[in-house]
Structures
1.
Amino acid sequence: MPKLEFLDAGKKIEVGKYANIRKVALLNDVELYKGLHKYAFLPPPAGNCLGNGICGTCTVKVVEGMENLTPKTVRERFHLKNRPEDVRLACQCQVLGDVCVLTNHALNYDDLYGKPQQKAAPATA
Ligand code: FES
């Protein structure tokens, strides 16, 4: 059986194949959401979307075992287009083998919302 480790929460959990990272985190009291995003009843953008891949607030950083996750979904590719390759939406990926993730990785604006687009410098004559 695959093992899913939440590094910053200090939990290593044996899960079934195709287990959803978000569900495993919530069932095992791993803090997945930051701030108001933990509340599902708040209207967007404050709350979360209950795992439907719409809000983009359930990001995890994959430390080990990226190859043991299902491929990125269309919703992940949309929400994570400006973020590092090792960031995934917990609600959209399923575990196929041993995986280690960080849930509390978004410590700066760029990690959380992506890098702002650079404007082209005006041409000088
Ligand atoms: S819970 Fe909303 S995108 Fe994962």
2.
Amino acid sequence: MSDESARVSLLWETIQEKEDYPIFRLTYLSSPVAPFTDADFDDIESKSVEANNARDVTGILIADDDRILQILEGREDAVRKLYAKIEADSRHAVIKLVCAVEDEVRLLLTWSMVVRKLTGTPPAVLEQFTEVYDELLHADSQCEISIEHIDLFKAIALFEALPQGVKW
Ligand SMILES: Cc1cc2nc3c(=O)[nH]c(=O)nc-3n(C[C@H](O)[C@H](O)[C@H](O)COP(=O)(O)O)c2cc1C
């Protein structure tokens, strides 16, 4: 197995790792002031990976021109402090915390922060994303991000790296 496919399968597998402390999973949705450029995404990703590793926070960020969905997982205090920074970032026009729950397991174990634009996502998957996004937008703060949601977000994030023939 090549290093790249080993990395992809590690990222793909939703290992439900139990930590020795409760995991706090926070999901927010936002609309950017202006559509992020590729350079903006690269900048957010490169700065977040190191900073999130230091805080032991993992997560994923999926976006298009007017929608951002980000999930943050880790110790509650670390996640809340990071969310306060993100919320204060002037690049958001509107930001809404949609789910904040405690769990025994970390679902995005190996994901320091993966940032992915929806560009190029197959239409059927984009439709599923839109359904989930709209559902979350109207949910209360006790809503849950399911394994199916995580698998959908991972499929979007890993789209270009997935082997040919993977069924959506
Ligand atoms: C959509 C979005 C997502 C972000 N996600 C993260 C993140 O996961 N981790 C992080 O450290 N900063 C993230 N940032 C950057 C923070 O908003 C903020 O600029 C950064 O944490 C500032 O760090 P500093 O206070 O150490 O300078 C994000 C910014 C945006 C606009």
